[in-house]
Amino acid sequence: MTGARALLGRELRLAIRSGGGAGLGLAFFLILVLLVPFGVGPSGTVLSAIAPGMLWIGALLACLLSLDRLFQADFEDGTLDILMMSRLPLEALVAIKAIAHWLTTGLPLLIAAPVLGATLHLPDAAQPWLVASLALGTPALSFIGAMGAALTLGIRRGGLLLSLLVLPLYVPTLIFGAATVSAAATGGDPLAALTFLTAITLASIAILPFAAAATLRLQLS
Amino acid sequence: MAGLKKKRRIQLIVIGAVLLAAATALVGYGFRDGIELFKSPTQIAEAMPEEGDRFRLGGLVKEGSWERGDVHRFTITDMNEDFPVQFAGIVPDLFREGQGTIVTGSIEGGIFVATEVLAKHDEAYMPKEVADALKEQGVFQPADG
Amino acid sequence: MSIWELANPRRFMALSGRILPGLSWAAGLSIGIALVWGFFFTPDDYQQGSTVKILFIHVPTAFIAINAWLMMLVASLIWLIRRHHVSALAARAAAPVGAVMTVAALMTGAIWGQPMWGTWWEWDPRLTSFLILFIFYLGYIALWQAVEDPDKAADLTSVLCLVGSVFALLSRYAVLFWNQGLHQGASLSIKQEDNVADVFFYPLVLSITGFVLLFVALVLLRTRTEIRLRRVRALMLREAR
């Protein structure tokens, strides 16, 4: 597994050092959520009603931001061809790239979300559920995104197309993620939605690396 | 070293299968207790929501309860419990006594103040004359949507 | 004749050219008759009055909107497994037709919903699912447009169609969780067709038949166009050499 660890380390170093792919998603999330009160007004009741949805939409858009570079840079400079010849199966390569994407975009959001939730008057009771739903839901966003990035590889200005393809695939995750938080905020039972959210994430991790790897093989053949 | 690559891929497939099985188990667990989408008058009677909490109330419009006017007043029933509703606005065509409806709003002073009234209709389509004839004979029971 | 013989573009062109005129006429006639019959010679519904008559457009377009995607799914699988070009082109040809039918179903639904439910648009599970389906159609069409190499475009769109189908199904259940919905259950099913009185049922079936014929005719026509486009491109490439 040394190959896998080396690749993960490379991906993380690249994301942190080269132009801050890691910080970008977090900064976008911060700005988006902090803009919401200016758009809808400072009323606490309104803000707390829309907080679960806004936080989840913010997380979703922040994840989209760095997706188009997931395979593109390695594809352009030929690294992807070399990686394909390595001992690591292509499926593992996709999974590692998706995990690295999650570590650099999804994980920082987890840490920032409670603070931003407080600014949007999210009830305290919902805070742990917000973190839990993001922790269990955002990995799905990265894996689905990897699938989309594989599909749009090599297309000029593929970023917009990537968003068009990926956003409808994000709908179930968004519904269950936001439903978890808003159920907790209004005194309902958040566990049902969280269960489905986790199921989607597990299924995405299980299946999508294979589909994305097959797509990459078609792309590079 | 193609053998190693193949072995690794089989390991991945096994991991994938395990994750998929876990996902299936979670879905089964999630469906264990049904999912509540709107509250019925009985549910409100059992656990009264806080005043001002917005939710959806669904049921049938009780026969003889509908007072028309600028502010419509009617009672929603599930044949077990009733709840009074008031609504300032125009109700849809299909809103009638004995038919299903879903109202959105909150409880204020023991009355459900609706901001939106929606009528549900069933999937039966029947010519008007036939329905009238059936009603005269007392055979036809409008389905509750 | 085995259905796989149609995978030969020459055979496909010959056969589709022969049946296309008849098919188009049949489609036009049955839709025309069904709509006139439905609009002017059926009584009003016992609850919905004359608004019910939009049923004769709404149900067939919704039916095609879903089944066009299913057809694309099957065609994509055939392309991925057996590499028949006609199949890939048929999937490509069906997508815009399906997208238009989805819009038509959404619009007639809105026109129906306004007097009946009291709202033009409601985030009802079935309405929302159709909206999501429409976005899937857009993404599929956009991917076809974006990839230049036709075989690679066929590969990628086929994968998108497969993955999209799974997620479309998932969204269908997710939106049910999210909102309980106003939309009535499906009226037409094999088990209980007495939901719809005969006076409405026969023109409706005729209308659905007409729309299916229309869909097949349009897909054949567009597939023929795609095949001809490819031939022209091949000729131009040969010319350029």
Structure annotation, total helices of chain B: 3
What is the count of β-strands of chain C?
0
Supply the number of structural domains of chain B. 2
Helix content of chain B: 25-40%
Strand content of chain C: under 5%
Low-pLDDT ranges of chain C: 189-193
Q: Based on helices, strands and strand pairing, what is the structural class of chain B?
A: alpha+beta
The ordered H/E elements of chain B are HHEEEEEH
CATH architecture of the largest domain in chain B: Beta Barrel
CATH topology of the largest domain in chain B: OB fold (Dihydrolipoamide Acetyltransferase, E2P)
| CATH class descriptor of the largest domain in chain B | Mainly Beta
Give the mean pLDDT of chain B: 75
Major sheet of chain C: none
| Largest sheet entry of chain B | 5 strands, mixed, barrel
Spatial extent as radius of gyration of chain C: 20 Å
Structure description:
The complex is a heterotrimer of chains A (221), B (145) and C (241). Helix content of chain A is 83%, strand content 0%. With 221 residues, chain A is mainly alpha-helical. Chain A has one domain. Chain A is elongated and about 55 Å long. Chain B is α+β, with helices and mostly antiparallel strands and 145 residues long. Chain B contains three helices and five strands; from the N terminus they run ααβββββα. In chain B, a hairpin with a 2-residue loop joins strand 4 and strand 5 (111-119). Chain B starts with a helix and ends in an 8-residue tail after the last helix. Mean pLDDT of chain B is 75; it is low at 139-145. Helices cover 78% and strands 0% of the residues of chain C. Chain C has 241 residues and is an all-alpha fold. Chain C has helices spanning 9-40, 55-82, 85-117, 125-146, 150-178, 198-240. Chain B binds chain C through residues 35, 37-38, 56, 58, 90-95, 102, 116-132, 142, 145, and chain C through 42-49, 51-52, 55, 115-119, 122, 177, 179-180, 182, 184-187, 195-197, 199-200.
